[in-house]
Structures are given as structure tokens and as C-alpha cells.
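Entry for uridine-5'-diphosphate complex. Fields follow.
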Amino acid sequence: MRVLITGAAGFIGSHLCDKFLREGHEVIGLDNFLTGSPENIAHLFGREGFTFLKYDVTNFIYIEGRVDLVLHFACPASPVDYLNHPIHTMKVDSLGTLHTLGLAKVKGARYVLASTSEVYGNPQVHPQPETYWGNVNPIGPRSVYDEAKRFSEALTMAYHREHGIDVRIARIFNTYGPRMRMEDGRVVPNFINQALRGKPLTVYGDGSQTRSFCYIDDLVEGIYLLSVKDGLEGEVFNLGNPEEYTVLELAKLILELSGSRSEISFLDRPVDDPDRRKPDITKAKKVLGWEPKVSVREGLKKTIEWFRESLS
Ligand code: UDP
């Protein structure tokens, strides 16, 4: 297949480029480096089958030739990033989604949207199945991401219903691993960075809020299966690891695995920070035959090693 990946220089996007190339597909990567980094794809430059365009998908997109699959993965995804770029985040999930869907339409391509567990907001149902409609504050600071992704999902389904495009939606839960930016502000890179530098680990609130953490290789496998399998038009899938930790447990685990003697400091909790989050992945297991294989311990060990090397 000839695959277009937006957000190709991002954390997940760059791993997807690797995966699709490894599986023998051609990849055209787009990124404007707002939160992505050329370093994430430097190893791919000059590789046969890989083309890269520095481009902002909020502008009209023109691609010459055939495109079989569009993966729309461009978007700031860390709360710190999307709060720093609130309007651009909303543009990439409205104009960017519109342009990539328009491209899929003219090319007759299949379309995969990177959505998020944030569409569930601060969930009142636990764990969250795809059928849950969520509990989102439409005017809170996080709404620039939550509502934008909900709009992206709605637009994607509208293109499916009105134009018959073969669309699939991946609701991605917290994912971590190599190539996350050290300063991206999310909990895993923050804690690892702090642990390795001997600085206090910054737990927001009392750390009793939970998240469920998926290792990047598992997530990429799930997205690949969701992209290549036939007969999934208009389907939405939770992709994540149901292993649930409180933020305080995560801090302690990272201290243990990194051998750090950093202390833990308690800071204010961000506004509208979800209390609990855990994917119900029954559907992905049944339909895609997918479930995460890497435990949180194992994945964190690999990630800590990668961060250690990047720091040295
Ligand atoms: N968090 C924390 N310390 C940090 C960064 C994040 O305690 O240095 C908490 C944050 O309040 C949230 C959880 O960790 O409850 C996950 O935050 P993250 O920014 O990774 O992503 P989110 O799941 O909120 O999108």
C-alpha cells in the first residue's frame, strides 16, 4: 500500500512509519514539527519507500499519485502541549481532519483517525467501553483537545455516512515508550526524567488518580491490525493496556526500576484532570485478535534505558 501518515515525526507517528515500512508498504510522512521532531525519523531519510514533507495539515493537502491508506496522527497530544497550542490543536482536529478526509475521498483511500481516551472526559463508567459517550466539560481548558477529537470523530463518521469512505477510529489510551520528548509534560517522561536527574517526582494532587499505560510496540501493532483488516468500516476501537495504576504507584515503580533516590513532591492537580481511566478492550480482543503483550514493568524498563541513553 501507499500510506500517508500525518504527524509522522511524532512519538506514535514515527513508530507507525517504521512499522508500515517494515511490512513492505510505501510511506509518505507529513509533519510540521510543532511537537514532533526530525530526530524521530532521521533514520528513515534516504530509505527506499519513504518520503517526507514538512507540512502543516491545517492547509489544503495535495499528494500526487495513488494513496491507499491515510493515517491522521497529527496533533499535540500532551496536556502541556495542547494547553500551549490550544487553537492550533483545534485546527489540526478540524481543518486537518477535514483535509485528510477530503484527500481519502479523492484517492478512494481507507482512513484511520487517531482519537483518544479523552473523548470520555472524566469518565463515570469504569472501565470505558466504546459504547460509553463520555463526560466532557465543553468549555474547560482540556476541551481544546477533548472536543476537537470528538469533532474529528463526528466528521470522520459523516464522511463515512455521506461519502461511503472506509473509516476506522482508534481511541488511544495513555501510551509511552522511546521517542517521547523528555520535556513533553506527560507523566511517564516527566517521572523518568526527574528520576534520572535526581529531582523530585512531581505528583499532581495526592496521586490517587489512575491511568492505564500501554507500551508503544503494542499500540502500533493494534493500529496496524485495525488498518489492514477488511470489513471494519465505521468501527471504533479502544486501544490501550488495561493494567491500571494510580499516579503515585507509577511514581514509586519508576523510582524502583530506575534505582533513583529522588523524593516525591505533591503539586496542584490540573483542572478537569480525569480521576480514573482504563480501557475496556473486549472489542479489540474479539475483532482484531489484539491485546497488549508488554507489561508495564517491562515497558518502563525499556523506556528508562532509552531515556538514560538519550541523557548521556
Ligand atoms: N501527572 C502527574 N505529574 C506529572 C505529570 C502528570 O502527577 O508530572 C498526572 C496528571 O495529573 C494525570 C496523570 O498524571 O493525572 C497523567 O497525565 P498525562 O499528562 O501523562 O496525561 P493524561 O492522561 O492526563 O492525558
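NOTE: The pocket of uridine-5'-diphosphate is lined by residues 78-79, 174, 186-187, 190, 202-204, 209, 211, 247, 269-270, 273 (CB under 6 Å).
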